[in-house]
Amino acid sequence: MWWSALSLALKEIRRNLLRSGLTMLGIIIGVAAVITMVTMGNGTTAKITAQIENLGSNMLILRPGQRFLRGSRAAAKPLDLSDSEALRRELSSISAAAAITNRPMSIIYGNTNWTTSVTGMENDYVVVRNWAISAGRNITDGEQRAGAPACLLGETVRRELFSYQDAIGETIRLGKIACEVIGILTSKGQSTMGSDQDDVVLIPLRAHWRLISGGQNVSHIYLSGRDGVDTNKARRDIELLMRERRHIGAGDEDDFNVIDMKEITKTMTGTTEVMTSLLGAVAAVSLVVGGIGIMNIMLVSVTERTREIGIRLAIGALEREVQRQFLVEAVVLSSVGGMIGIGLALVASYFIAAAINIPLILDGSIILLAFFFSALVGVVFGYFPARKAARLDPIEALRHE
Amino acid sequence: MIKLQRLNKVYGKGAAAVEALRDVNLSINEGEFVAMMGPSGSGKSTCMNILGCLDTPNSGHYLFQDTPVEDMSRNQRALLRRHFIGFVFQGFNLLARTTALENVELPLVYRRIPRAQRHAQARSALASVGLEGREHHTPAELSGGQQQRVAIARALVTQPSVLLADEPTGNLDSARGHEIMELLSKLNREQDITIIMVTHEADIAAYAQRVIHFLDGRIQPEQGN
Ligand SMILES: Nc1ncnc2c1ncn2[C@@H]1O[C@H](COP(=O)(O)OP(=O)(O)OP(=O)(O)O)[C@@H](O)[C@H]1O
Ligand SMILES: [Mg+2]
Question: What is the ipTM score, two decimals?
Answer without folding.
Answer: 0.95
